[in-house]
Amino acid sequence: MSKAIDTSQWLSLIASFALVLVLLLGTLWVLRRIGAAGLRPQAGRRLVVVESLWLGNRQRVVLLRVDRREILLGISNQGITRLDGVVEGVAASSDPVSAREESAADTAAIEPRPAPAVAKQRFLDAMRSMTSRSSGEGR
């Protein structure tokens, strides 16, 4: 009644199991890369991540929009630092291109934004000072 499983059936079974594991790990990697925020719709929310730029292994700059204000933040393991002041007058539009064009016109009259290189340098300087302070405290 019981039949023995031959070698080809064992190989087929192991290959199927390996394929399922690879697909599972690939799905987990993709979900980790996009994060939970990538799965939620952003329309109608008061707090929106407009852009995010990775600067290093664990350092990034994030542009947040809260209602009609934009805030530039630097994020690292040591904490969160506000890099740029709050900018008023950003258009709350569903079209990101027109919102950026309108926000550029509004912010030019309110407060000039630093160039991306300047913002990146400010962030790196802030991270260096925080790192040097934390390493100096341990002595």
Write the layout of secondary structure elements.
Elements (H helix, E strand, L loop, with lengths): L6 H28 L12 E8 L5 E7 L2 E8 L2 E9 L8 H15 L5 H22 L2
Antiparallel strand pairs: 1-2, 2-3, 3-4
Kindly list the characteristics that best describe this protein.
139 residues, 4-stranded antiparallel beta sheet, 3 helices, 4 strands, 47% helix, alpha+beta
Largest sheet: 4 strands, antiparallel
As residue ranges, the low-confidence spans are 90-99, 105-110
Helix amount, in percent? 40-55%
User: What is the residue-mean pLDDT, rounded to a whole number?
Assistant: 75
Q: Write down the domain tally.
A: 2
Identify the strand order in the major beta sheet. Answer: 1-2-3-4
- Count the helices. How many? 3
Strand content: 15-25%
What would the principal axes of the Cα set say about the shape? Answer: elongated
Distance between the termini: 75 Å
Give the ordered list of helices and strands: HEEEEHH
Structural class of the helix and strand makeup?
alpha+beta
Beta-strand segment tally: 4
Give the radius of gyration: 24 Å
